[in-house]
């Protein structure tokens, strides 16, 4: 947990640093544009007061245009070099590595089988008795806090002992509850969906079909 928080802070710091660099770059480009506009305005004012003759005006305007084009290409070039290339082929070393099997993923964990079984029973009680799955915004951290176990051990128990992910566990209990309500009550499908913990009708139908192979409407026919 401590290492994860350090990594999280490091990633956050890196993101802030990158954002600051990008902001500084935008400010530099903005200053260049503002400076160019100021010089153009100043040059126009000088011309209006007759500081430059017609011949000198043409020569100065030609020089100014050349400098403007040069500055524009310089800004575009620098901006382009600072961008991340979008057409570079991803190498094998950059590709995400496949997730390790649970046995290898947790081989260095201190969680033994007996303790995993106790955690599994606590998870079962939290769902069956406390109806924790009905909380719409339930997270792995919430479940771990409820049963008094670290989230890492809860995740490990789910993967190695129960053979499912956190979302599979929660949706399984939600659909089980929904099936009971659909067959024993006259509540509408939408009311049942929200009651068992889903935030939307579409998410409920998708999970229901995945768990049962049917739709809620099919079950009531």
UniProtKB/TrEMBL annotation:
Keyword presence, Membrane: yes
Keywords: DNA-binding, Membrane, Transcription, Transcription regulation, Transmembrane, Transmembrane helix
Alphabetized PROSITE patterns for the sequence: HTH_ARAC_FAMILY_1, HTH_ARAC_FAMILY_2
Signal peptide location: none
SUPFAM superfamilies xref list: Homeodomain-like
UniProt-recorded Gene Ontology molecular function terms: DNA-binding transcription factor activity; sequence-specific DNA binding
Domain spans labelled HTH araC/xylS-type: 117-221
Chain segments annotated as transmembrane: 29-52, 64-81
Family annotation (InterPro entries): Homeodomain-like_sf, HTH_AraC, HTH_AraC-typ_CS, Tscrpt_reg_AraC-type_HTH
Coiled coil feature spans: none
Protein name: Helix-turn-helix transcriptional regulator
Protein's organism: Sulfitobacter geojensis
């Amino acid at each position: 947990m401590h290492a994860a928080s350090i990594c999280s802070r490091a990633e956050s710091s890196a993101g802030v640093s990158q954002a600051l660099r990008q902001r500084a770059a935008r400010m530099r480009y903005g200053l260049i544009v503002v400076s160019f506009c100021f010089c153009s305005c100043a040059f126009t004012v000088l011309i209006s007061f007759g500081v430059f003759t017609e011949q000198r005006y043409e020569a100065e305007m030609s020089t100014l245009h050349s400098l403007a084009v040069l500055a524009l290409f310089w800004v575009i070039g620098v901006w382009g070099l600072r961008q991340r290339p979008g057409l570079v082929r991803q190498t094998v070393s950059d590709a995400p590595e496949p997730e390790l099997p649970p046995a290898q993923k947790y081989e260095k964990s201190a969680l033994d089988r007996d303790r995993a079984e106790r955690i599994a029973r606590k998870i079962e009680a939290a769902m069956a008795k406390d109806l924790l799955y009905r909380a719409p915004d339930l997270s792995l951290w919430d479940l771990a806090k409820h049963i008094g176990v670290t989230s890492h051990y809860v995740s490990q128990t789910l993967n190695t002992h129960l053979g499912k992910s956190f979302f599979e566990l929660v949706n399984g209990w939600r659909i089980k509850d929904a099936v009971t309500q659909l067959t024993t009550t006259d509540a509408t499908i939408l009311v049942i969906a929200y009651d068992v913990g889903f935030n939307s009708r579409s998410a409920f139908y998708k999970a229901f079909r995945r768990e049962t192979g049917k739709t809620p409407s099919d079950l009531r026919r």
